[in-house]
Amino acid sequence: MTTVYVTNRGEKALIQNYAFKDYTFPVNEPVEISVEMARHVFGYEQENKLPAMVMLGLCKSTNEIEEGLVKLAKFEITQDKPEQNRFLSPGDDSVTPLVPKAHRGRTVVKAA
């Protein structure tokens, strides 16, 4: 089984069912899936993308094909896992841990 990586560059996460299993495609995170699923769900390596766009709800009529293709293009499919954007400086591979807040119990003040 060959796999590909799908990265959702859209504005919200996509949840799609394939082979009785739910797959979540979070925004800007690559998800590894089979080539067969990519063909079925996203029209990967197929000229006619209309069935995939209709299944995903990206277009409901032939008048919306162009708009649906733009939305479908927001799902980038690559054979190699894309590198994640890093927010650390190139020379620093560590992240400073968060300091836990001191736990302060609830104080009860008696009325006079």
What tags apply to this protein structure?
112 residues, three-stranded antiparallel beta sheet, 3 helices, 5 strands, 22% strand
Task: Walk me through the structure.
The chain starts with a strand and ends in a 34-residue tail after the last strand. By secondary structure, it is α+β, with helices and mostly antiparallel strands. The chain has helices at 35-42, 50-56, 65-72, and strands spanning 3-8, 14-18, 21-25, 30-34, 75-78. The longest helix has 8 residues, at 35-42. A hairpin with a 2-residue loop joins strand 2 (14-18) and strand 3. It has a domain at 3-75. Helix 1 (35-42) crosses helix 2.
> Which residue ranges are poorly predicted, with pLDDT under 50 across at least 5 consecutive positions?
none
Could you give the count of β-strands? 5
The best one-word shape is elongated
Strand arrangement across the biggest beta sheet: 4-1-5
Radius of gyration: 22 Å
Averaging pLDDT over every residue, what do you get?
A: 84
Order of helices and strands: EEEEHHHE
| Structural class by helix and strand composition | alpha+beta
* Separation of the first and last Cα atoms: 75 Å
Total helical segments: 3
The helical percent reads: 10-25%
Brief overview, please?
With 112 residues, the protein is an alpha+beta fold. It has helices at residues 35-42, 50-56, 65-72; strands spanning 3-8, 14-18, 21-25, 30-34, 75-78.
